[in-house]
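New to this. Explain these tokens.
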Amino acid sequence: NTNSPEPAARKPSHRVELSLSNAAAGNIISQPLVSQILVGINSVNNSLSRNASVSALVNIHRVFAITGFDDKNFGSQILSMANAEVMQLKPNAPIPNGVTHLITNGSLTMKLFGALVKGCWVLPKSYVDDSIDRHQWADESQYGFRHTNLPLLSKTMAFSPKFKTHLSTTESIASEGGAKVVPIAEHSHADYVMCVQSESDKYGSKAMTWEQLVSMLYPKKISEGTPTEVEMPAPTQERERPIRGRGGLRA
């Protein structure tokens, strides 16, 4: 029929298909260009992710405690940074639950052990120094560590009668870490039995010496560099509460 109307022209589609089949059939977009677009999208997403991570690090409120340093101006330096608080603690005082970061010179102290068993970040002074130089808080994981699984929480401990040298110190650590202490007569129900080296066979897999406890709680030694495997320190001279023997504590 010559009078029949011609079919209406198809309206152009405004939807761009990025599949390779459409690109090959209609030359809408070439494969290299598709790849470039995808790479660009991934780059933008990665950049946004990094910016979000940096923003999160900067905006975290940090509550610091300090151990092993006599510099009275150090606390003021920390307070010069945003979102920071410093708790002034007496020597050998327990770490309050609100503390999130401990700055240490690496020496074994009650504050260090308290921070370790409570999951605080344990960091060297260089973490603060570098953050001040950059005018924003650095990434803690590049300087120190923390226990994300609290090592003593809900654990049960018993003490051998021969475990005397570090008894009061270990009892304090156990208390801060949320462990329960049971009589040695109930050692079969304990997770750890604190004892001397010569008793290791007696208590089997539950046996734990002072040195083994330190290594479990403090697996990486904090110093002015990358954390390294812990080395047991020589005895230290006490100022507040002397503790004799290897691995003595300071304030």
User: Anything to note?
Assistant: The chain has a mean pLDDT of 81.
